[in-house]
Amino acid sequence: MTEAALTWHRLPSRVLLLRVLEVIKSFAIPLVLLFVVNNDWESTFGIILRVGILLFLGLDVLQKFFGWLNFRYALDEKTVYIIDGNWIKKEKSLPLYKIQSVHSNSPFLYRLLGVVELTFDTNANSDDASFKLAGVFPNEAKRLEDILDQVRHRKTETDIPVEGETDGTVAPVAIEKPSSRLLYALSTREIIIASLTSLSVFAIFPVASTIISSIDDFINLDGTFDTIGDWVVHASIIAIGVLVLAVLILSIVIGMVINFLKYGNFRLERRGDRIRVEKGLLNRSAKEIPYEKIQAVRVKETFIRRWFHIVGVELVAAGTMDELKNESSTILPFVKRERAMNVLNEHFDQFVWSDALHRLPKRSLWVKLLRISWVGLIVSGVVLYFFREYAWWLILLWAIIIGGRLLSYMTTRYAQNGQFIELRTGAFNVTSFLTDKPRIEQIQVTQTPLQRRFDVCNVLFSTRGVLSHELIEDIPKQEADAMLKWFSRYEEENMKRPG
Predict the structure, then answer these.
(1) Cβ neighbours of 69 (radius 10 Å)
(2) How many CA atoms, within 13 angstroms, populate the side-chain half-sphere of residue 223?
(3) What is the pLDDT of residues 23-53, one digit of tens each?
(4) Which candidate, 365, 384, 377, places its Cα nearest to that of 451?
(5) Which of 270-275's residues contact partners 24+ apart within 8 Å by CB, and which partners?
């Protein structure tokens, strides 16, 4: 189809304003420090620095303008066409039937201007596998999603592939959007508990460090640090205690605010043959995962949250783009383990969890304890040679190392249940992994000399497309051999051969 026969669309003009605001936002700290806090136009270096910042700002704005001006997109019944590029135009086309999911993202500035960002994902591992519409009106976003629903409907209702159609006379099929079914919604209480049981309570420290580092690049803060140090040295224990308590309370509040902004209005839904995750207050995002692309389920438990039976659930999905992989794979960020398992058993029944998992034999514990810790040896050597006065800290270091190995032995479990493999690994943080035989790409067994003496080995499971590698250590060699035999395709092929 020629370019003239297509109806081309541009992004709204307010998207250009949005991009300019994003550029100004990225230059905000240097601009404030150079033109407000320290407005020095007397030195040659100061003038060059300020002129350079303004030139970079202007060049970036000009690039954003040409990027907006050159971008166009068009659709027919089978293909989406894109013209893109800042200085050099690039043209590409993508068949609609290859688009597996649509991810929408609405940061605060986007919502303020009434536009959304759409990412169309083909779930393929290539640079041209997906494309973005970085700012369209909600009604246009709905129109595009309706077109994709029609393409999916035609693809499932006919045996002829969409790309095999010989003419463009097929009338669009009027279909209803898939009904949405709510699977889970986070409550305010869950977000508060999760904030108190996570490292987000210490969010104030990296935030403060980033701000101080940015300011220190332009203004020397050594004198300020010396003043604070003198106050701490001469302050009373009560004053220091009050300061520490105030910082702790402030960090808890900041951690809660961050979690509310990130996970507020969290909803897990099922829409037809795909899972949809929506979350965020200021920055609202929505991700989709096709059911057929789910390769495995991973349940994570941090050391602190294990005491409160709080877990996070992720899906290992085939071909998801790297920039969306972490976000789209998390379907339950922090919920009670019992409720999480209820959701998995009810709505992801293609994966069957085992009722009983096997523990490691006692000889595996000896292997873990006798295995050399190179980190422990190197740190011990450095401390004993250069910092002998701090040698007693090595007791704590080796207690953590040995304690972690004991926990690893106690928590590691495994089971081969019919077509499914279930693993539970980790020490302080524990991960449960579940997949089935058709989704496993390969199983690799390794054995060190120490493991050979105790007749144990390591087993590495890789899902399709090298999506995930799950390692279980120090299981009995006969169990590993049984897993290899279970996975082998040769046995199945021999059973199918006549005679």
Answers:
(1) 12
(2) 2
(3) 887 777 777 776 766 666 667 777 777 788 7
(4) 365
(5) 270/180, 270/181, 270/183, 270/347, 271/177, 271/178, 271/179, 271/180, 271/181, 272/152, 272/178, 272/179, 273/178, 274/101, 275/183, 275/315, 275/331
